[in-house]
Amino acid sequence: MAPRRSQPAVVGRGLGGQLRELRVRRRLSLREVAAELDWPPSRLSRLEHGRQHVRVEDATALLVIYRVTGEEREALLGQVERVTEPRWWEAAAGLSDESRTLIHLEAEATTIIGCEPLLVPGLLQTPDYTRAVMESCGVRKVDTPPRIAARLARQAILTRETPPALHALIDEAALRRPVGGNQVMAEQLRHLVTVSARPNITLRVVPLAAGAHTGLDGAFALLDFPRNRSVVYLDHKISGLFLEERHQVEFFRREAVRLAEAALSPLASVNFIARVASEHERK
Q1: DSSP element (H, E) containing 77
Q2: Domains, the chain, ordered by start
Q3: Which residues, at least 6 apart from 125, have a Cβ–Cβ distance to it below 8 Å?
Q4: Which residues cross the membrane (predicted)?
Q5: pLDDT confidence of residue 125
Q6: pLDDT tens, position by position, 214-225
Q7: Quick check: 216 and 117 in contact, CB under 8 A?
Q8: Which of 57, 237, 253, 269 could pair with 264 in a Cys bridge, judged by C-beta atoms 3.0 to 4.6 Å apart?
């Protein structure tokens, strides 16, 4: 499957790609560095291309050769530790390889643009809403609790000390569909109103009055990183696809701009969400 073959390069790029950039910055060849560490060149190549996990001891040795010190060294080693630390909820949830990759990419992103024509974005879902979505999509009851835990764990990136900026474009239809019933939906929308007060979260509603728009053919997420190339993620029932070619990413960036032009302003969007929440509460 094409998405699965390309996945290691995408997820490994966050670490291996940065290490490669440091090597190139020092004007060292792959063979020179490998010889310094008494490694076969193929090992360093695998690390740089995301085909082998970067261990803390590997990164430490490389950073010595690349003369990386101070805050930059600590940041890179911290990134290695975050990627290699055990995540019980990932294993317990039985997540697909694509979902695991997305989790790692979200954790390293500085900006996430999410466009959702049908559902509230996963990073902003309440547990009851998530449960209703999973049950309606046929997830087995035994798998539902760990998957809910995994989704909630993903949301932790939005409240950390240096969170990514999240720009969520949501179709009005996603707000009006009573997923889990009107009470669950009202609570979900009230949650959106609450989180919209955070400086790193921007919500934009594309109203039904906008008619047909470019987001109707599917959800997508566009992730930007401090050093690496941006990535677009397309999700489906049993698979996911990562796009990282420049022309592909720029296509979806333009699509996000077009959607934003059709959407309400952030303030009008939050007020609109609050009104729809009240409508659900009255039903």
Answers
A1: helix 70-84
A2: 2-84 (1.10.260.40), 89-282 (3.30.870)
A3: 119, 133, 151, 188
A4: none
A5: 94
A6: 888 889 999 999
A7: yes
A8: 269
